[in-house]
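Hi R.,

Here are the chain sequences for the assembly we discussed:
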Amino acid sequence: MPRVVVDVMLKPEILDPQGQAVQRALERLGFDRVTSVRQGKRFEIEIAEPGAADAGPAGSGAAVELGRDMAAKLLANTVIEDFTVRIEDAAGGAG
Amino acid sequence: MTARIHNPVAIDTVEHAAATPAMPQPYAELGLAADEYERIRTILGRRPTGCELAMYAVMWSEHCSYKSSKIHLRQFAEKAPHSDALLVGMGENAGVVDLGQGWAVTFKIESHNHPSFVEPYQGAATGVGGIVRDILSMGARPAAVLDPLRFGPLNAADTGRVLPGVVAGIGGYGNCLGVPTIGGELVFDRSYAGNPLVNALCVGVLRRNAIKLAKASGPGNQVILYGAKTGRDGIGGVSVLASATFGAAGDGGGDAAKKPSVQVGDPFTEKTLIECSLELFERDLVAGIQDLGGAGLACATSELASAGTGGMRVWLDRVRLREPSMAPHEVLTSESQERMCAIVAPADVPDFLAVCEKWDVDAVVIGEVSAVTPAEADAGGRLVISWHGEVVVDVPPRTVAHDGPVYARPLARPADQDALVADAPSPARLARPAGGAELRGTLLRLAGSANLCAKSWVTAQYDRYVQGNTVLAQPADAGMIRVDESTGLGVAVSTDGNGRYTRLDPYTGAQLALVEAYRNVAATGARPLAVTNCLNFGSPEDPAVMWQFAEAVGGLADGCLALGIPVTGGNVSFYNQTANTAILPTPIVGVVGVIDDVARRTPTGFRRAGDVVLLLGATSDEFGGSEWAHVVHGHLGGRPPAVDLAAERLLAELLVAGSRERLLSAAHDLSDGGLAQALVESCLVGAIGVRLALPGDLDPFVALFAESAARALVAVPSSSEPRFTEMCRARGFPITRLGVVAGDAIDVQGQFSIPLAELRSVHEATLPARFG
Amino acid sequence: MTRIGVVTFPGSLDDRDAARAVRLAGGEPVRLWHRDTDLAGVEAIILPGGFSYGDYLRTGAIARFSPVMGSVISAAGRGVPVLGICNGFQILCESHLLPGALTRNNHLHFICRDQRLRIESSRTVWTAGYQPGAEIVIPVKNGEGRYVADRDTLARLDGDGLVVARYLHGNPNGSVADIAGITNPAGNVVGLMPHPEHAVEALTGPGTDGLGFFTSVLRRLVPA
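And here is the predicted structure of the full complex:
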């Protein structure tokens, strides 16, 4: 199955002091036109193809579903975080 | 075959080495001198394999072999005072001292200086991790950490990079391990600008009959590597980093290739390693144990083997790797963190592995202890290591671990030493404040200066409470932890050092560090028992630095003998210099003491209005290397304060006896900043003022700011004053009544008054203003 | 003697200290292992402070799926008292036994200090022994202690009296509305960021103001 990428970010209304610290550091390095930085997490998940006897679904659609399920249950705290799920092919491009 | 540094030879076996004696080997790139390489060939009777060369190179490096310092460090053994309390002395992972009641304390200090300049967070974090593992490997639960730190000038740009990273690293690692940080130091000086000093001391507590040692005895016993998997961390870090000085470019731009050599730590893995190991110890499943630090498996196997029967067989391919492509010499010298090596009787192996499984700690049998023939024993034992069926190492382990080169480096008193000492801080040379207003201004200026200001911006980043046994922590004179909840038995620890004093007179400067730590422990009411030291110096190839080193070691050894407390171990860090400029010679001394009941400890801060404030000890006009000369005049010259070891012993006896008889409300030693600084700290910690008069026979400036040694400030309830004064007089120890604890100001009669609110805002503003 | 369970996850640090606090309060601490679903018949449960699973992914995110937590969640539903201290509070929020979440301190540093708190509610089993409005001093020590919750949740916490403690004299981490601890409506599940177990002996803490959390639950559990 293709690689699943889950991006997790704090919800916009949650204060992100780490993002702010990164912004200040960028400014100190001379990147003075940066108006905002938010910091999040990216998960790259490889899922094995189901075996011949396995009734489980396969393919991109199924992979996205699995990714959403993982994100909602563990990878993101949906109280304070949003997530997006997408597929990448092995070379890192969008599937 | 080409000799490429990062992959000397794919599988250079012993057999192949014996057959190709003339093959060129990159010993110089690995840090070995030509004569050292020849010596290895002589020992083995052939050229070394790539793995053997790597092993000898890291183990014979300065950091591991102490080749430049050994001949001087011998003094600690030669001049060791007899001590009934000493259970394990120098030579093991850490010293162990008897506390009584069946308890013992193990402790040691180490440095992680160069990595902390390259990568402040990880350098400091792995420094803490390493010293904690040393303590764990003695069979003890790590109970406390202290961190003496040195940085460049407070306002230098690079200090803004290094200090916050180091503090975050110490906190990030130590807090996650559940070991409280209860003391340390923070000193700023130009000479540490490219060479911060990050020393870490760890104290552990154990039952005295449960001490573990690092030896592989019992032929047939299994060698088990457990903890984190092995990766490419810090490969060559020991010889590459620790024996190199940085280029003159202040940002460590000397050699970019050094960056990958810094190890990365994971405190969660170490926490589970601690709990797993303690359970293994408790169930008596471990016959010998060694932690893996500098030089990784190369060090652990050779040291365990040479301390035991002398024989060991290792199947290196059984080591669990993070990266499957690692070559055997990389596996041997990897400095991946959070790993331990245990010697386990065959019958205990299943239980051992089960405990590791319970804690989710990786464990694998990688070898076994072997018997040696008499000839092999004479040669230094026999360590055989194979890689997928081929023998890649066949060496006498003692030659790797203990018989490294010993250098007698040339020493020479620095050419500028006489001029430096002659440039005394006399009134003619340095203008002194006169009159109350100027004295007031000087006190405030010093109280807010970098080295004397409040350190809470740093110390609030450390967990001081975890384990629930911390009785005293910074800013107290010494940290103190309770060892036994039912009896109140406790241990006190302090670390101290002064680079400026040591520059002026290394022999005296080292003794001043010793007596300060000794005095700090006694001030809490604990009886000093033993010493550890971290000797931070410049390049041993510089005769002036070697002279400083030899003098300092001599001073320390003589001082320990006179005070009756032995050195149990420590660490030497050389090559702390940028281009040709060495750091101030900075021997840091840790002293450990025992108190029978922590409930009677003497705190630092004034507590109760009406308590009488007494100054113990004699004050002279001594300002060489003082904070006043440094802060106000930028001056370093003259002689450091004189040391009177007999007076220090007497003072310690008085402080301990005063505590035992519960005569003291508070006690604080005098050191940097003199009486003025002691008053500042005692008032602010206790949040209560003092009304005093300076002794009439002294110039007020001298009384307030001189840094004479063997002095302490105590507060006693007025009912105790006669008894305590009598105790001092009976011993012929000078005691002067200064005044009383009262009000909310430092009120010096006839001179000035400073409200505590004003004092506090100056004292506490400095670090937050700099670091946010 | 009343048995109170203290759970140990990989990386828990203040479990032994919580056990000591239970003992000093007059109870019998029972150590519970994260892999066991058997709660050994304890009458109350403490999730202690520390860095369970190294704070990997998010604080408390992995611990909340430990086998023991299934039993803790059921027990909480049955009214068994559960106290989550620091990392324990984080685990309770991740488990959705309490609303909101704990995030990185607003100033980004780990902070350890003696913190003044006001006990807002004595209507929980863990704070019944305090006067409402009582001011106490106990240590706070964390890097991820900033409590956040959406507006509706905050309104509910305030309106229903579910805030257990608030920071006084300086908020150490930027928690919304200075919230240091909250309770569920039934008053048996309490999450608290500061560490009462480090204020149970004058010798080793800022005082004994923390003992009340442990004596409150013991008094509630002893049959009348």
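Chain C touches chain B through 28 residues (CB under 8 Å). Chain C has five helices and eleven strands.

Let me know if anything looks off.

Best,
T.
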